[in-house]
Structures are given as C-alpha cells and as structure tokens.
Design the sequence.
C-alpha cells in the first residue's frame, strides 16, 4: 500500500509516500532512516493501532503522456488528464479537468481521446500499458512524485508481541525490499526509456519553466494550508521541508554537478 491513500483521513500520511516537489529516493530514505521521519510515521499511525515501515520505492516518476505538446500554462486550460491525489488538486488550479481512472482504463481512454493526458508510473510500467501507442509526448521529470514509498503495515499489538530478534528481521527485510525495488525500477526504466524514444518515436522533454514555477507555487500554498489545519500535519510538514531544504543544498554540490559531468558528450561518452 501507499500511505498517501490515507491522506483523506490523515493528511500527514501524504509525506510518507511523496509530496510534489518533495524528496527523491536518496532524500526520503535519509529523512526516514536517519533524520526522524520514521519516528514521525510511527507517531502518526499509533492512534490507529498500526506500525509502518518503508518497503519499496519507484524512484522519480514521469510527469505523463500528452497527446499534444505543452508550450505554456494556457495549454493546461480545459485539458482532461488522468492524475490522482494531491497532484490532481494542484493541476485543477491551472484549469486541468482531473479524471480518476484505474490503470487498466488509461490506454483506451487516452487512445480514444476521452482524456488528453495521463500519468501512471515510469517508462517500464507505462510501456507495458502501451501508452506510447496512444500519445507521443512524454514529459519528465515527475514534479508530482519525486519518489514513491510503499509501506509495510503491521498491527501494533502483533508487532509488540514479537521478540526483538524477529522485529529486527522484519525491519531488515523491509529495508532490503525498499532498496531492491528501487534498483529494479532504475535498471528497467533506463532501458525502457531508450526503447520508447528509439523504437516508438516518443518525444521525451521537460515542462516549460513557467509551468513548473506555477505548479511549485501552488504546491507550496496547498501544503502550507493543510499544515495549518492540524498540529500533527504541521509537525510532519515542518520536519520534511526542513530536511528537504538541507538535502537540496547538499545535492546541489554533489549529485547534480556529477550528473552534469557524466552527461557531457566529451571523454567517456
């Protein structure tokens, strides 16, 4: 399951899956395992008699498939898009008509023009649905889901009845699943994206800067408004965002420059 499915009842749960413009795989794991995030997760779920651990992650997802190119904010006005969750609420504020469809209905709806755009997961899973046959414009990077944590849910009384050694086994198994699922997605998405571009004529590109700026502003306002509604959400929000800002400073001088170096056409390419 994903914690954000409970966001209608517990908005703070959203942060334990993902929030738009939030933390990537490395960042969310650092927050959960080493900066108090997992303790907050347990605190939020305790009143419901549950214990949770991260046990999977897709990594960064894709913005989605569009039948027509996006050149400006105006192109979203009246656009019908399959996009669930908080991202859908953000899109609605720039004129998108949000449609909620199960995965199996996305392809026929996109192919027939019932919807103009759709978000699912990433290149590998999207290719399996055949979305490349219904739309050619594939937008990166998933501002709405920079990572996507899946959760292991355990009854709290059952958890507390386990001896320490069995609890350790469960924790380590969940952590191993978390790492393996992300590694699997990274390997398969890389190969699938190349296949989509080279063999299906898919056009992979980023959203225009003005669109990203607008979405970022709406997201900030939305999250702050939700955090102001209850102290639990505010506590989680403040912890998450403080860590995101610190992590962003580190990424700006570590991961990001490195990817710039290896993407250069000089040398080892």
Sequence:
């Amino acid at each position: 399951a994903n914690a954000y499915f409970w966001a209608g009842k517990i908005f703070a749960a959203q942060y334990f899956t993902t929030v738009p413009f939030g933390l990537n795989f490395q960042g969310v794991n650092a927050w959960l395992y080493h900066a108090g995030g997992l303790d907050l997760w347990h605190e939020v779920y305790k009143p419901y008699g549950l214990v949770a651990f991260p046990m999977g992650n897709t990594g960064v997802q894709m913005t989605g498939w569009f039948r027509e190119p996006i050149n400006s904010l105006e192109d979203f006005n009246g656009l019908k898009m399959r996009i669930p969750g908080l991202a859908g609420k953000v899109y609605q504020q720039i004129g998108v008509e949000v449609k909620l469809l199960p995965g199996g209905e996305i392809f026929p709806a996109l192919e027939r023009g019932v919807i103009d755009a759709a978000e699912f997961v990433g290149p590998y899973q999207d290719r399996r649905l055949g979305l490349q046959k219904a739309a050619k414009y594939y937008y990166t990077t998933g501002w709405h889901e920079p990572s996507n944590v899946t959760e292991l849910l355990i009854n709290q009384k059952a958890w507390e009845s386990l001896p320490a050694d069995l609890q350790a086994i469960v924790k380590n198994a969940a952590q191993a699943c978390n790492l393996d699922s992300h590694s699997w997605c990274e390997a398969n998405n890389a190969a699938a994206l190349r296949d989509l571009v080279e063999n299906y004529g898919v056009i992979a590109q980023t959203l225009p800067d003005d669109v990203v700026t607008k979405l970022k502003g709406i997201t900030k306002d939305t999250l702050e408004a939700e955090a102001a509604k209850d102290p639990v959400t505010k506590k989680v929000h403040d912890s998450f965002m403080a860590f995101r800002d610190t992590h962003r400073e580190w990424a700006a001088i570590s991961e990001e420059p490195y990817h710039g170096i290896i993407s250069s056409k000089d040398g080892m390419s």
About this structure: The domain at 3-58+144-197+209-262 is CATH 3.40.190.170 (D-Maltodextrin-Binding Protein; domain 2). Strands lie at 50-57, 64-66, 80-82, 97-99, 117-118, 137-140, 149-155, 203-206. The chain is about 50% helix and 15% strand.
